């Protein structure tokens, strides 16, 4: 009796598996491309049957973008969802009140312009930077697929490349890194000749340059590498990690901060209209803190990118052709002018001939700084 029951169960299971496989074959996408009779590659293949004479539904050959849970995929073009925070001007910020404070900045504007020349839809959403990238690992939002990618990340060397894939850059110029320190009676607590031995140094959680990048660069005053320093976590935790790191230095919990060389300039109140971070804190440049190293570029592989994504996700393959197309347009040049990035953009036929601009102060190596620490950018001290 038990044997007969087992046989019946086995037959039933075999039937169900066969039926399931048959149903699956009817909706399984065919290969992404099919070869024409002349040997050329045709467009996306359509599946209309399973070879048994029964017509099945017509299916697209493959998803147009990596699938996300709870998100309608693109039907006739890729639909890519990119996330960013709004405290990284002018790359990622809030738009004007008249437009209901949308996600804005060079990255979103580039994505919007790209849709005009390429068959792609891009949706920008706000998140916290730590959902994209933490201090030394991929953020949980990106790892768990809350969005396809995150925008406005520099293609740094080191640890990021073990977790992430990067799109092609949308700016030609890599961003300079710097080291800032607090001023006590107008004097930096460490100077430009220091190799940082014994120095407590902090960095901005979730931002480049990353901790391992400091080992790549050299002191712009001595030409020597840095060594013997101690990394310390920011002693403040808010939604604004740049503020947290600077407060850690000003509070004396760290001696120096490894950060973008333009961070203080771009975060001050003069450059921003009622920003959500503490712009007055950054207005202390030259008063409460100053850079003792600027103009360090060796840490980056490429400039600002449109997307980072989980390594192997394939998002870069989707957006790179569209990036290449938009880089050749007049709208790209206008976008570069809008954000005062003409000298940092990829030059196309719409750029004026011989675009030459003076190097901005934070891109200058410390050895070429001629002002004083009271200006915010210290020169190399005498040796």
Automatic annotation (TrEMBL):
The signal peptide here is 1-21
Organism name:
Seminavis robusta
The taxonomic lineage of its organism, from the top, reads: Eukaryota, Sar, Stramenopiles, Ochrophyta, Bacillariophyta
| Stretches for region Disordered | 32-70
Which protein are we looking at? Answer: Solute-binding protein family 3/N-terminal domain-containing protein
Q: Source organism's superkingdom?
A: Eukaryota
Protein keywords: Signal
Q: Which SUPFAM superfamilies match?
A: Periplasmic binding protein-like II
